[in-house]
Amino acid sequence: MTIQTANLGFPRIGPHRELKFALESYWSGKSGRETLLAVARKLRADNWQLQKDKGIAVIPSNDFSLYDHVLDTAVMVGAIPDAYGWKGGPVDLDIYFAMARGSAGDTHQGECGHAHHSHGVPALEMTKWFDTNYHYMVPEIGPDQIFELTANKPLEMFQEAKASGVFTRPVLLGPVTFLKLAKTRHQGFEPIQLIDRLLPVYAKILAALSADGADWVQIDEPALVLDLTAEDRRAFSHAYEALHQLVPNLKIMLATYFGAIADNLPVVVAAPLAGLHVDLVRAPEQMDEVLAALPPGRVLSIGIVDGRNIWRSNLAKHLDRLEPVAAALGAERIQVASSCSLLHVPVDLERETTVDADLKSWLAFATQKLEEVAALGLGLSAGRLAVGAALDASTAAAASRAASSKVHDPLVEARINSIDDPMKRRQGGFLQRKTVQDERLSLPLFPTTTIGSFPQTPEVRKARAEHGKGTLSDIDYESFLRSETEAAIRWQEEIGLDVLVHGEFERNDMVQYFGEQLAGFAFTQHAWVQSYGSRYVRPPVIFGDVSRPRPMTVRWWRYAQSLTEKPVKGMLTGPVTILNWSFVRDDLPRSAVCGQIALAIRDEVADLEEAGAAMIQIDEAALREGLPLRRGNWGAYLDWAVEAFRLCSSGVSDRTQIHTHMCYSEFNDIMASIAAMDADVISIETSRSKMELLDVFQHQDYPNEIGPGVYDIHSPRIPDVAEMTELLVLARRRLSDTQLWINPDCGLKTRRWEEVRPALVNMVEAARLLRLASDDGTLSATGA
Fold first, then answer.
1. Please, what is the Cα angle at 113 between 109 and 117, to 5 degrees?
2. How far apart are CA 417 and CA 429, in angstroms?
3. How much is the pLDDT for 114?
4. 137 neighbors 123 (Cβ within 8 angstroms)
5. Given a cut of 70, is residue 777 above it in pLDDT?
6. Residues 6 or more apart from 258 whose CB is under 8 A from it?
7. Which of 280, 375, 517, 616 has the fewest CB atoms found within 10 Å of its own CB?
8. How many Cβ atoms sit within 10 Å of the Cβ of residue 413?
9. How far apart are CA 506 and CA 491, in angstroms?
10. Active-site annotation holds for 114
11. How far apart (Å, rounded) are the C-alpha atoms in residues 221 and 206?
């Protein structure tokens, strides 16, 4: 009996972040298109060969992207808004990257060799890929959309892999998921209505793959783990019946992941598919139901090695689960696989040379997960003795972790048990707090501020790197950071911002910075994962009970506040965001881990207030993205997430103003929870949505204050005063003047000062004009 092993996708970034550096070199003009594409080709070839060498039988192709696989699909099928100037045919890289990043507007040379002139366009909207920390570019589709095949990327990748000596299973984002992820600005229209227009393009792609020798194709339909409508299900059934009729010889492995298929299972098993992949890590409970419904002859791909977290598999327990399935189905009908693409985990644990030895023995990155998949396949095929050494090591690691004093802290457990309801409530209601805060702060109407961080310039990154290597002394590094902080404070005063920030030059990342100072966290040197485009992060590893040994931010806040009479915000990352942006231990409920983090942040809030901070911002950028994919599971998550925020923020007096920030959040369906957080000021992303996100605050009569972002910091564009003023007029139609703050969409660390300075100057001028208009009645609060 030989069990096939399969992988659904591999990290694109390269073991040394080769893709990041190639992209940024291309964007800056330091290198050309061919250099970028050559780096990409080598990364793909190396990934294919690695998977082959590790014993993976079914290796994916077309899982690689220069920026984002959803964007690749939109470009491939011609879903390109008119603003980007596409005239049909192959899509120029400049158009592709304009959709991803926006363009500043300049003269540039295209791939055709001719000069192109542009006035600048914003990027597509960006949001999180299901409930992961990866961002995708949201396709924009209207009722008049005509799809066409611009270039057959899956075929090109399949052929490229064959030429390198590796036969692969091409990967496509499924048509139903693609349309479900798309957005439209047309009321009463849903992109899924265009399924019939899209299917001929998919049929062309699949027919070409079949003609070139592909026997299987992996079509990813993670939308099948969502709450789907009857229309969605009809579209799915119709799509796969049509594709089977049009390309009958190509076997489709339908890949679902991130949750259970649940009530969508009947339409899935009724479709003419050759195989079905299920995620047994996120939804282990679905195995029996899937087995009972699986049609005769259909291959079952079992995603049992975690593609989203970095903990080592317990191979013996996995074999206990897999052996009965293999016996029931037979070797020819089962594949052992990663739960989803390994895009979400770092590349290779072996590069980590400074991680604690015990902790390292408990971990597995993408390369090691390939080995785990291969070991499980061999263990099923040849028996456990064939993988005895791997099984022994896995079992020993699990036992070591369970018993380790590095993981368990009785003092933390005791403190968690002492939490009571008064610890989770502010002393006074919002209106009572607002009165004393206004008296203390004396801010003008439409106060201006930023979200927290300022550009992490090459000089900042260089100083941090040199300090980390020991070539820049503690004293010299401290002096450098003080200089950067003072310069930022002086500049903010100069342009007239009302509430200042210290710039966060000492911080490497909004989560990592705190995790490095909290007990129970560990950090890596090279465990990068892709957030979006060339933006990579190294998530902290929460391996044990969390506590705060000492203050983390007070010293830098105190220094910044000493430089100015204007208020400087204390800047913290909230417990839910720290949790959601970390690799979280899997031996405790996430809610319990979040409660531990909340207590640690509560201690920091108390110390900032004692030091004199009048405003403390506790960012919960990831609150909404942590929502379970099924609405029926939202309530429990929101209850403990909101409770964690209130636990960390409610220990202050009424005169201390609590801010929070949230990125890319549709608030309509969680408004009650946002209100329950009871932050005095919330800042949110609204520029790409043209302030539409504020509608829910208006309709719910939300009383607290709001800072709607007036420009998109993820694009290099510098919006002018008129553009920001127009957005603010839209905001005033939805909110009262006394509620409005003025700020960018998000932190500014990823931007250059050359972009930040003029944008913030324009923002302050827009606020000044708004105040004048409010004073003389030129613009009313309703925008009349």
1. 35
2. 27
3. 40
4. yes
5. no
6. 130, 131, 132, 222, 225, 279, 282, 340, 629
7. 517
8. 12
9. 18
10. no
11. 16
Cβ-based burial of 28 (10 A; exposed 0-12, middle 13-18, buried ≥19):
exposed
Q: How many CB atoms lie within 10 A of CB 207?
A: 17
Q: Is pLDDT above 60 for 713? A: yes
Q: Among the residues of 654-748, which ranges form H helices?
A: 671-677, 695-699, 721-732
**Longest C-alpha distance within the chain, in Å?**
84
What are the tens digits of pLDDT across the range 677-686? 999 999 988 7
Report the half-sphere exposure of 416 (CA within 13 A, side-chain side).
Answer: 17
Of 159-168, 672-681, 725-734, the least confident? 725-734
Query: What is the helix, strand, coil percentage profile of the chain, to 5?
Result: 50, 15, 40
Number of H helices, E strands in the chain: 27, 22
Q: Edge-to-edge strands of the sheet including 657-662?
A: 570-573, 615-619, 657-662, 681-684, 705-708
Site of tokens 């929101």: 638
Determine the Cα angle at 191 with ends 187 and 194, to 5°.
Answer: 125
pTM: 0.88
- In angstroms, the first-to-last Cα distance of the chain is 75
Beta-sheet strands, E only, within 182-245: 216-220
| DSSP bridge partners of 169 | 60
Tokens linked to 300:
């079952």
Q: How far is CA 421 from CA 83, 425, 579, 688, in A?
A: 52, 7, 22, 39
Which residue segments constitute the domains of the chain, with CATH numbers given?
411-456+493-776 (3.20.20.210)
What strand order describes the sheet that includes 541-547?
519-522, 541-547, 583-584
- Residue 263 in contact with residue 231, Cβ under 8 Å? no
Closest CA to 583 of 406, 281, 346: 346
Give the Å distances, CA to CA, from 488 to 58, 505, 522, 560, 568.
53, 10, 31, 9, 12
Tokens of 466: 């040199």
